[in-house]
Amino acid sequence: MISQREAGLARLRARTFDVLVIGGGIVGAGIARDAAMRGLSVALVEQGDFASGTSSKTSKLIHGGLRYLEHGRLRLVFESLRERSALRAIAPGLVHPLSLLLPVYAGDRRPVWKIRAGLWLYDLLAVGRNIRPHDLLSARRAVSREPGLRLDGLRAGGLFADCQMDDARMCLANILQAVSLGAACANYVRVRALLKTDHRVCGGAVEDLLTGRTFDVQARIVVNAAGPWADAIRQMSVAGTPARLAPTKGIHLVLPRLARQALLVQGRADARMLFILPWGDYSLVGTTEGPVRGPLEALAAGAEEVGYLLDGVNRVLPGLHLDADDVIATFAGARPLLAFAGAATSASRGHAVNVDPWGLVSVMGGKFTTYRRMAQDAVDLLVTRLRVQADRCLTDQVSLLETVGEASPALWQELTRAVDPEVLARLLVRYGIGALHVLRLIDREPSLAQPVCPHHDYLEAELAHAITRELACTVTDVLARRTRIAWSSCQGLDALSTVTGLFQRYAGTAGAPPELQAEAYRRFLARGFAFRGGPARAPAAVA
Fold first, then answer.
1. H/E run at residue 62
2. Least trusted range by pLDDT, from 53-67, 282-296, 521-535
3. Residue 401 lies in a domain
4. What percent of the chain has pLDDT over 70?
5. Rounded distance between C-alpha atoms, residue 369 and residue 61, angstroms
6. Do 134 and 147 belong together in one domain?
7. What's the rounded Cα separation, in Å, for the pair 226 and 206?
8. Looking at residue 252, which CATH number applies to its domain?
9. Residue 119 pLDDT more than 60?
């Protein structure tokens, strides 16, 4: 049986497309979805897995960017808050409200009056799209919401709402909907060179990294949505073209659950704001901002960066006494910031859509929250350059739920009758209508209804679904991006034999041998613990 990926590769070779998108992060995925919705024929290639670069290394927030207000970036905050509202509407299972508490201490760089003014302005810029009004709490009320807060010097607490999301699955949802609309999307396909004819770029010479096969993808127009790698693609088009990006590195820590309340904390040593966020049964702490050293695809948390974040947590939650041994996992990514003569944070999230002399369209900069708007701007330009009649952009109105065709009430009743209601509710939140595919797997093989391991609520059917329906090609794709299993106490090591077994059953000869899959996954985990020094080793499996 031919896999979805193999079918996509065959389509990439078989025709000339209106648009070739280079990059399967959130911006490229959003462009593919938007262009396909407007009736364009779309191809997309990604050198790794979808969202494996920057788009799965975020703070998992859809937010306006409260801290940008002090830099005068009112337009950016307004646009981000508008996009927050749109994403809540089209992806409620992936984007949900989150209350954040910003404790203010004596000596903080942003005193109470400044926090109060910022929160009022934040509400004002939401202009009717606010989740709920902010509140300025007394020190006593702030501690009642989060009892672990340091009391010494606590003056007040600003309480406001933004949204939390699953970044990797948000990206995947865009890819899957683009595919359902006719786009040909393939991961692990790298562009080796741009094709040119008649003084214009007309496609890419690509390599399938899983098989080593090379072929050409022909297109009327090529879009560079490669995130931090965008300058490298621009160099393929015009050698020696000046860099437009100044990427910065940011890291995050996964820790045991630290607090019951999401916190936004002012750094004492610098002006950065740190997030301490609930993330399932764990806490996510981030982020740092520093220079990128070494290959973009091999970034890892350093000891100094980990220490910086732990110090920030211990300062505001002093009863925890955290150290490096408490870290469950880390991840690091590069922000594709536009080069700017000034502080990185003041340049941080603006975006640009440029066309070079060969017609290569490059979409650069931006932030996850505004990806849909970035995609709209890019596709508006594509429609103009292609001189085609196309539908208007509807990506802010059409649900991101996977399109699966007609499903009769009788079929739903038949497939759900043997599934626990709590399990069914969880599947519907994660997959929307796509839960039907998971239920069909369980109906055919009831043994797939059992959890992957005792430390997770993920079912074996969900992992099989990732392999058969969600373009997962490796164990790491499944455990780190299709699910959150890699970011938990057992790191997925207790489930490793189960996952490799599922690959053998459902991927057949398309996947790498189980022992190579397992070794590659262990190397992926080990990179997250390189900060501890010595040989990089992933933690032992939980007994």
1. strand 61-62
2. 521-535
3. no
4. 93
5. 8
6. yes
7. 15
8. 3.30.9.10
9. yes
Whether residue 227 is found in the same domain as residue 369: yes
CATH code for the domain of 379? 3.50.50.60
Query: HEC profile for 154-199?
Result: EEEEEEEEEEEECHHHHHHHHHHHHHHCCCEEEECEEEEEEEEECC
* Residue keyed to tokens 């990926």: 5
Tell me, yes or no, if the pTM score tops 0.85. Answer: yes
Nearest to 51 by CA among 177, 175, 234: 175
Residues 6+ apart with CB under 8 A from 92: none
CA 114 – CA 27 distance, rounded (Å) = 34
Give me 473's structure tokens: 């090609």
Residue type, position 408, single letter: S
CA 522, CA 538: separation in Å to the nearest integer? 6
- What is the phi/psi pair of residue 12, to 5°? -60, -35
Q: How many CB atoms lie within 10 A of CB 477?
A: 25
Supply the angle between the helices 409-416 and 435-444 in degrees, to the nearest 10: 60
Same domain, 425 and 467: yes
**Residue 141: is its pLDDT beyond 90?**
yes
Which phi and psi angles does 353 have, rounded to 5°? -120, 110
Would you say 262 and 101 are in contact if contact means Cβ atoms under 8 Å apart?
yes
Instruction: Residue 45: give the domain boundaries.
Output: 4-54+168-245+348-386
Sign of CA dihedral 377, 382, 384, 385: positive
Query: 502 and 432, same structural domain?
Result: yes
φ, ψ for residue 303 (rounded to 5)?
-60, -40
Q: Identify whether the C-beta of residue 467 lies closer than 8 Å to the C-beta of residue 507.
A: yes
Q: Which long-range contacts (CB under 8 A, 24 or more apart) does 321-325 make?
A: 322/255, 322/258, 324/531, 324/532
In 184-300, DSSP assigns E strands to: 184-187, 189-197, 200-208, 214-224, 248-256, 262-266, 273-279, 282-286, 290-291
**Residue 360 DSSP code:** -
Overall domain count for the chain: 3
Across the chain, mean pLDDT equals: 91
Instruction: State which of 339, 374, 399 marks the end of a domain.
Output: 339
Residues 6+ apart with CB under 8 A from 393: 34, 37, 38, 376, 379, 380
pLDDT surpassing 80 at residue 536 = no
Alpha-carbon span 270 to 4, nearest angstrom: 48
> Are 122 and 132 spatial neighbours (Cβ–Cβ below 8 Å)?
no
